[in-house]
Prior knowledge:
Layout: H1 3-16, H2 19-26, H3 30-44, E1 49-51, E2 56-58, H4 60-84, E3 91-97, H5 103-116, E4 120-126, E5 140-144, E6 152-160, E7 162-166, E8 182-183, H6 208-216, E9 221-225, H7 226-234, E10 239-241, E11 250-257, H8 264-276
Parallel strand pairs: 3-4, 3-5, 8-9
Antiparallel strand pairs: 1-2, 5-11, 6-11, 7-9, 7-10
Helix pairs in contact: 1-2, 1-3, 1-4, 2-3
Organism: Balneatrix alpica
Family: Belongs to the LysR transcriptional regulatory family.
Keywords: DNA-binding, Transcription, Transcription regulation
Amino acid sequence: MSSIEQIQTFIAVASHGSFAEASRQLALSTSAVSARVQALEQRLGVRLLQRNTRSLRLTDEGQRYFEHCRDALQQLQEAEQALSQQGVPSGLLRLSVPTDLVMAPFARLLAAFRRQYAQIEIEVHLSDKTVDLIRAPVDLAIRGRDPGSPELIARPLGQAELVMVVCPALYPANMEGERLPLLDPLNIRQQLPPLATWPHSEVRSQHLGLTRQLCLQGQGAALLPLALCREDIEQGRLQQIATDFALPPLPLYLVYPNRHQQPARLRTFINFVLENVTNYPLV
């Protein structure tokens, strides 16, 4: 068995956090995957994984070795692609984006990118969880508010304007807005003293899309990105409430690991997004 096979197997196990999933990805038996990792540990003279019947995690040595091996393997793959594709960027690019991202401009951006770089495949994962870009099999992410770990590079994509909206039936001309319960999915009322005394809605969620639906159903006033509810305001389904204080903007970032060597497909996508963010605004 070659050391390359052992390393590839270890990378698969570390990436997926599971011997069973690595065995499916590699089309090997679980026992074969385990044997390769054990042989690698014996050859290196160090334990790379802590494992029992219920959990699996990388040791500190395993985490460092995983990062070095993954980067080295990506460079080898890049070298092969440069020869086989004559320098044309190619391969699979995995993106993690929040479920509340306004999808229409994002879809137009992806379509424009694919028209220019047809050899690059794109796999989009929708998740509101902060994906670990160092360990997870994801190349880059779009994130709002907090870009995450200092080990990551965060490139700003703009700032979403926040507005306060309400179902028109709850806000007749003779009602003061502060009497309404408040839906605050971004938890920003603590930054805004004028909102401290507003009552909470009895139905609450941190999901922007669900909060919009709750607002449409009359469950209170809501603090939401304008891009998410602009059409509702224009068509009269929601009414914007004017405030005598400024609402903080919601920053959006393109986030990726801080590595010395990046695959050409990743560099190409990052540059394309940053160059075209005004043509396909995501906020």
